Q: What sequence folds into this?
């Protein structure tokens, strides 16, 4: 199941892809990581999905990542007496703490923390931005607003606050319960929704305690403004363009996507581009030309992974959507300008021995046209560092830990093999060559470069390079 591309594909599971056969079809079509959206999934169903993925993993003999996406805090209006109510542009509209059903003049807002944080001049976006209000005055019991963009409002519509930092945690009680349940089943990544500050990441990491890597979903302007601080703590980023496009002007989202992708690359953190990538394939067997261009742009920018949401979870053509994304990625990466663009974005390695070794491995592999860069890695950090270099040669990560292989399934260009740790340097070289030949990354007589840490099995101690020939004995042993 070697992929012929470097960019990874994340597929969301849902009603259209809920049984083992459907999940297997998505994997065969190109999915590397499966996303379980806890906004629509019970604990029992989540455990069933994880079990099905793990069975599939055993059958194919390749690590498969699982991303648990937490719902996060949902801000919603109360109810209306005559549903829906119509708000006219220029009128005033009040949000208050009175639970009485509302009308065209007022409605209940059951979130007291908003009243304490909002200030005059702040914008409130209702129902995914279809209705826009501007706060005129506010106290602990009411927010008087002016209707800038009117429209119809019905019960429990969402509220977005692009100008207001609301003092609540990104982890609700539901999120905590979902996270603990996910950790018990052995999920690999957890995505945090609607984060505003680095403290939200720190809070999640106290719960995960290394049992899962933490991904920050950037979907609020407050998070964009503190991206550097958030990235220092997070293990990965997701450009969650859906809500980001609600809370900031749509025309700014492409620029933010590029900024995030490049910042994550500089930091050596994986980045996932998500939302509406092949949206038309929910109901159509083929995407639009604009969608193909959108996916290609993310790949040209060097994103580690691209994600399908409703396309694979609830669409009519889930397998076709994954296969289409797979073909786009393969074609982009064959384009003669692809490596030139990736190379132009390369940054200097950090002043550490491990980064210097990773950069040297890439340069040696390119100079000598080596068949593969093979990383022996326990924690996965060696594979991450080499992937940051975006080398032309394939990256093969060999790890004794299945959990490491599963996390690396999200990382650009990394093909992970789970195998017993090497006993000594000779064993490391011999088995690296054999496994590279077996999985089709090198032929007899070709050379590979091996990156590892000595003493073997020491996490984070990347300090050794070795160039090796793939001998006929390696092929015979693998056979």
A:
């Amino acid at each position: 199941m070697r992929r012929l591309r470097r960019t990874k594909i994340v597929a969301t599971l849902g009603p259209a892809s809920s049984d083992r056969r459907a999940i297997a079809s998505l994997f065969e079509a190109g999915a590397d990581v499966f996303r379980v959206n806890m906004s629509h999934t019970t604990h029992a169903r989540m455990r069933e999905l994880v079990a099905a993925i793990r069975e599939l993993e055993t059958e194919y003999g390749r690590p498969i990542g699982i991303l648990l996406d937490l719902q996060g805090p949902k801000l919603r209006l109360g109810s209306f007496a005559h549903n829906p109510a119509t708000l006219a542009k220029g009128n005033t509209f009040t949000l208050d703490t009175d639970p009485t059903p509302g009308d065209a003049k007022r409605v209940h807002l059951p979130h007291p923390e908003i009243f304490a944080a909002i200030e005059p001049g702040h914008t409130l976006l209702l129902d995914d931005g279809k209705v826009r209000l501007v706060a005129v005055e506010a106290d602990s019991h009411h927010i008087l607003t002016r209707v800038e963009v009117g429209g119809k409002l019905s019960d429990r519509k969402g509220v977005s606050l692009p100008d207001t930092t609301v003092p609540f945690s990104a982890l609700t009680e539901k999120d905590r319960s979902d996270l603990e349940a996910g950790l018990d089943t052995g999920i690999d990544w957890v995505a945090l929704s609607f984060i505003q500050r680095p403290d939200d990441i720190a809070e999640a990491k106290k719960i995960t305690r290394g049992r899962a890597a933490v991904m920050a979903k950037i979907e609020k302007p407050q998070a964009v403004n503190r991206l550097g601080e958030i990235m220092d703590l997070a293990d990965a980023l997701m450009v969650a363009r859906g809500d980001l496009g609600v809370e900031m002007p749509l025309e700014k989202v492409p620029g933010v996507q590029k900024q995030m992708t490049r910042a994550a690359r500089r930091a050596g953190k994986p980045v996932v581009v998500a939302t509406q990538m092949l949206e038309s394939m929910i109901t159509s067997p083929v995407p639009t030309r604009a969608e193909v261009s959108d996916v290609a742009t993310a790949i040209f920018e060097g994103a580690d992974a691209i994600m399908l949401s409703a396309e694979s979870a609830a669409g009519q053509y889930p397998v076709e959507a994954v296969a289409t994304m797979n073909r786009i990625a393969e074609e982009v990466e064959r384009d003669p300008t692809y490596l030139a663009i990736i190379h132009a974005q390369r940054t200097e390695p950090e002043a550490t021995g491990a980064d210097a070794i990773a950069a040297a491995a890439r340069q040696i592999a390119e100079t000598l046209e080596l068949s593969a860069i093979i990383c022996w890695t326990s924690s996965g950090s060696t594979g991450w560092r080499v992937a940051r270099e975006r080398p032309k040669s394939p990256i093969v990560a060999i790890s004794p830990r299945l959990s490491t292989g599963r996390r690396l399934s999200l990382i650009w260009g990394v093909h992970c093999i789970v195998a017993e740790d090497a006993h000594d340097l000779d064993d490391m070289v011999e088995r690296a060559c054999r496994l590279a030949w077996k999985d089709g990354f090198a032929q007899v007589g070709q050379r590979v470069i091996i990156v590892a840490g000595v003493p073997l099995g020491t996490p984070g101690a990347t300090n050794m390079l070795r160039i090796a020939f793939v001998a006929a004995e390696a092929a015979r042993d693998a056979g």
Notes: The chain has three domains: 8-72+170-335, 85-160, 353-478. The first helix runs from residue 20 to 29. The chain has a mean pLDDT of 94. The two ends are 17 Å apart (CA to CA).
